[in-house]
């Protein structure tokens, strides 16, 4: 009987016991973007600051991709979109390691940092974003490395460099933007960018043109809204050409070659290749779908092939109608954080999570359109599905939503990092 | 006989404590899920329903429960006009709306 009584404290204090177990757990988050930063913060918050979290991120501060087209259009600066990681450390107690991961061993549950040390984890949250597949287009890697053809699809130096290229371009020049086949990061992003460049040309270089060369059969997001605004405001500036799949570029001559369509020459070229999960995920063998995207269990965002590795954000194989957006990554991070806390505490995971998404696009410096959706977990099909009748887009471009869009940015940056 | 009574009492005690601890952890888990679900509003309405200063998107923390439920229903049935919330609210069922309203109403502003 001594034995039975002896075990009662553990039973009595199950939650204390679980807390102790959880506080000894080592959680590592790779990637400090919308997904990873949010996951780090929320694992701390949702565990009552009990579970230690290490965040590994190579950059010194967070620079938002959403809103970065405004830097290209000229109405915002990169500094407006930059947030320090300091609060994650000082306010939430996250351990920040400025480094990148060169190797993950999912069997030994260890990872190696570029600067040398090997770290062990009990739970790994991987939010590596996307890798540009430069080598799928002949000549693109060299043209990119030389700075001649930029992607600017990860906000940072290339964003301001592309702005500079547009400023240097003479009036009457052509800006060509190519769009890869879906799925890619930020479905409406290319069309917002085209709008921003057209807005700039209209003010500063009215004889110039924006050519959208799209591998898809039509505008992939908010199509009618973009097209209406273009025809009302940028009729002589923007030209949209569907079914243009890039196969090669010549950076020196400014040429873009397609599988079927005629070669195009432009002054400023912004060639977006196909994308896939960030290279560390691919290299670790986690990109189960076409060697591009990482399959997960949608209740926990745990990899389908590696236990205790949770993958979120753009790198993840998305559920139907789920865009690769910063807002989605922030939402994934919260479901993941709750699942990690529950699992480490020995509690049931949430059987019915849901996710929200709102994507705003600026079609000028003060006019905005949005798309919104709600994704409920469907236990029969083990995936997320949008609720019939919910979600939707703006009725038309409007200035009120420009206020909301900028406030959305402020609030989601705060929610992810501050 | 005395031993056997003591034995039964101890078994009973263990059972009660086990059930107590089970329901305590179930409650903890439920609170976690409610809080994580409510975090789906935080992308626009701020962590724990508190927005940045001068936000045009309203804070939700500390708003009365009935007010929150009523607003969500008004967005849903179209009687309150919105840019986004009429679309988001239609994705949530009554139980989810009630749980979100419960959560935000208990938070300090």
Description:
The complex is a heterodimer of chains A (418) and B (109). Chain A has 418 residues and is α/β, with parallel strands linked by helices. Chain A is 32% helix and 25% strand. In chain A, the strands form eight sheets. Chain A has a five-stranded parallel β-sheet, with helices on one face. Chain A has a four-stranded parallel β-sheet with strand order 13-12-11-17, with helices on one face. In chain A, strands 22, 23, 24 and 25 form a four-stranded antiparallel β-sheet that branches. In chain A, strand 23 and strand 24 form a beta hairpin. In chain A, helix 1 crosses helix 2, helix 3 runs parallel beside helix 11 and helix 3 packs across helix 12. Chain A is globular. By secondary structure, chain B is mainly α. Chain B has a domain of 75 residues: Cytochrome c-like domain (Cytochrome Bc1 Complex, Chain D, domain 2). Chain B has five helices and no strands. Chain B is elongated. The interface between A and B is large, with 59 and 44 residues.
Architecture blueprint of SSEs:
The complex is a heterodimer of chains A (418) and B (109).
Chain A: H1 2-12, H2 14-23, E1 27-30, H3 34-46, E2 53-56, E3 61-63, H4 69-73, E4 82-84, H5 86-90, E5 95-97, E6 101-105, E7 110-113, E8 118-120, E9 123-126, E10 130-132, H6 140-145, H7 157-168, E11 174-179, H8 189-204, E12 209-214, H9 223-233, E13 238-241, E14 246-250, E15 255-258, E16 264-265, E17 268-271, E18 275-277, H10 279-283, E19 296-297, E20 302-303, E21 309-311, H11 326-345, E22 354-362, E23 368-378, E24 383-386, E25 392-393, H12 400-417
Parallel strand pairs in A: 1-2, 1-9, 2-5, 9-21, 11-12, 11-17, 12-13
Antiparallel strand pairs in A: 3-4, 6-7, 7-8, 10-18, 14-15, 15-16, 19-20, 22-23, 23-24, 23-25
Chain B: H1 2-38, H2 42-45, H3 65-77, H4 85-89, H5 94-106
Helix pairs in contact in B: 1-5, 3-5
């Amino acid at each position: 009987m001594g034995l039975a009584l002896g075990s009662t404290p553990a039973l009595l204090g199950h939650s204390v016991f679980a807390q102790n177990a959880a506080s000894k757990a080592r959680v590592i988050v790779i990637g400090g973007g919308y997904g990873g930063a949010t996951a780090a913060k929320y694992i701390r918050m949702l565990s009552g600051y009990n579970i230690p979290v290490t965040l590994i991120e190579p950059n010194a501060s967070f620079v938002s991709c959403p809103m970065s087209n405004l830097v290209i259009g000229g109405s915002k600066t990169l500094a407006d979109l930059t947030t320090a990681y300091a609060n994650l450390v000082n306010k939430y107690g996250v351990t920040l390691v400025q480094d990148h991961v060169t190797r993950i061993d999912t069997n030994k549950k260890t990872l190696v940092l570029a600067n040398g040390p090997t770290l062990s984890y009990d739970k790994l949250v991987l939010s590596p974003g996307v890798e540009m597949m430069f080598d799928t287009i002949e000549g693109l890697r060299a043209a990119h490395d030389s700075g001649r053809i930029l992607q600017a699809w990860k906000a940072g130096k290339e964003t301001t460099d592309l702005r500079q290229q547009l400023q240097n371009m003479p009036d009457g020049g052509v800006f060509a933007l190519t769009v890869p086949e879906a799925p890619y990061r930020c479905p409406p992003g290319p069309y917002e960018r085209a709008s921003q460049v057209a807005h700039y040309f209209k003010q500063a270089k009215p004889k110039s043109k924006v050519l959208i060369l799209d591998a898809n059969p039509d505008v992939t997001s908010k199509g009618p809204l973009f097209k209406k605004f273009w025809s009302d405001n940028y009729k002589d500036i923007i030209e949209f050409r569907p079914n243009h799949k890039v196969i090669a570029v010549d950076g020196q001559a400014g040429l873009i070659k397609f599988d079927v369509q005629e070669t195009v020459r432009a002054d400023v070229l912004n060639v977006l290749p196909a994308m896939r999960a960030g290279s560390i995920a691919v290299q670790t063998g986690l990109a189960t779908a076409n060697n591009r995207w990482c399959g997960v269990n949608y209740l926990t965002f745990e990899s389908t092939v590696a236990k205790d590795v949770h993958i979120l954000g753009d790198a993840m194989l998305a559920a139907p109608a789920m865009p690769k957006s910063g807002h989605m990554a922030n939402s994934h991070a919260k479901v993941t954080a709750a699942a990690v806390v529950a699992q480490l505490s020995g509690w049931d995971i949430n059987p019915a999570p849901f996710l929200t998404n709102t994507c705003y696009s600026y079609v000028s410096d003060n006019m905005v359109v949005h798309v919104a959706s709600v994704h409920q977990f469907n236990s029969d099909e083990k995936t997320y599905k949008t609720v019939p009748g919910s979600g939707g887009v703006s009725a038309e471009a409007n200035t009120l939503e420009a206020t909301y869009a900028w406030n959305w940015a402020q609030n989601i940056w705060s929610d992810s990092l501050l | 006989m005395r031993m056997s009574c003591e034995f039964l009492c101890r078994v009973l005690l263990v059972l009660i404590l086990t059930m107590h601890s089970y329901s305590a952890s179930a409650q903890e888990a439920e609170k976690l899920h409610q809080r994580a679900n409510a975090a789906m509003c935080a992308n626009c309405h701020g962590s724990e329903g508190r927005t940045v200063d001068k936000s045009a998107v309203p804070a939700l923390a500390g708003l009365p429960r009935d007010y929150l439920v009523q607003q969500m229903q008004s967005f849903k049935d179209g009687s309150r006009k919105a840019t986004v919330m009429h679309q988001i609210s239609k994705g949530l069922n009554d139980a989810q709306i009630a749980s979100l309203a419960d959560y935000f109403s208990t938070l300090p502003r």
